[in-house]
Specification:
The chain is mainly α and 256 residues long. It has one domain. It contains 11 helices and no strands. Helix 4 packs across helix 5 and helix 7 runs antiparallel to helix 8. Its EC number is 2.3.1.-. Keywords: Acyltransferase, Cell membrane, Membrane, Transferase, Transmembrane, Transmembrane helix.
């Protein structure tokens, strides 16, 4: 959550004035938002798991390093696992899953993801976001062999960029905002970078390392050496100091 709040310090004002962003600024703002959303929701989910353990309640893992995903199917096995499992069990499989023809499977994927988008809010931008992921899942199912032959690092970075583009629709409050952000991302555009660009680049770099290369909390929970205990204790103390000593951003997923 500390990482998410640090990213929010430049992401929120940058996207509030999205029409003035340069191409580099638009990409940096959306990269920041991609990590902000992940660390925000994953942080709260992991806190719930930890609190559950304290009371003897086992709560399933909800995020498994989704930005380490190598393809769209892998992404949805790692992102918001409780929701993706629910959509699989109560939508995709009852629709027929992959038991019919290829066209029926693609239809089932699209319907599932459209409803998943609508679950986040009754707005066309969420529906387009769901359709976007439905198309990605269908394309990978059809043409995945070529993608899977690429080097691992290329697939991971490529999947992150693909997810980032989808977050434009998720974050946008209107099609106009989404279209303008995409135009500025994919066509040369003059304008501002982001507020505090040096700090923004540093925050995104740290978030990228942590989310795409570093271990997650669940990987480390059975291998807690004394050094890690000391680092976790020091990090927790520093995080509490930052949380209570600064303005925190609202939990992004409260709106859903």
């Amino acid at each position: 959550m500390v990482v998410a709040d640090s990213l929010a310090a430049f992401v929120d004002p940058a996207l509030a004035d999205y029409a003035s962003l340069s191409t580099a600024g638009a990409w940096l703002a959306m990269a920041g938002y991609s990590f902000q959303l992940y660390f925000d929701f994953s942080g709260y989910s992991t806190m719930a798991v930890g609190l559950g353990y304290m009371f003897g309640i086992r709560i399933p893992q909800n995020f498994n390093s989704p930005y380490k995903a190598l393809d769209p199917s892998d992404f949805w096995r790692r992102w918001h696992i409780s929701l993706s499992t629910c959509m699989r069990d109560y939508l995709y499989i009852p629709f027929g899953g992959n038991r019919g023809s290829e066209l029926q499977t693609y239809r089932n994927l699209m319907l599932t993801m459209l409803i998943g988008g609508l679950w986040h809010g009754a707005a066309w931008t969420f529906i387009v976001w769901g359709a976007y992921h439905g198309v990605l899942l269908s394309l990978h199912r059809k043409y995945g062999r070529g993608w899977d032959a690429l080097p691992r690092a290329v697939r991971q970075l490529g999947m992150f960029v693909i997810a980032l583009v989808g977050w434009v629709f998720f974050r946008a409050t209107s099609f106009g905002m989404a279209a303008e952000l995409l135009r500025r991302m994919f066509a040369p555009a003059a304008g501002a970078l982001v507020p505090q660009p040096g700090l923004a680049l540093a925050a995104v770099a740290v978030a990228a390392w942590w989310a795409m290369l570093g271990p997650n909390a669940f990987d480390m929970r059975h291998d807690i050496t004394w050094r890690r205990r000391a680092l976790i204790t020091a990090g927790s103390a520093a995080s509490l100091a930052l949380i209570f000593g600064s303005r925190s951003s609202p939990f992004l997923y409260f709106q859903f």
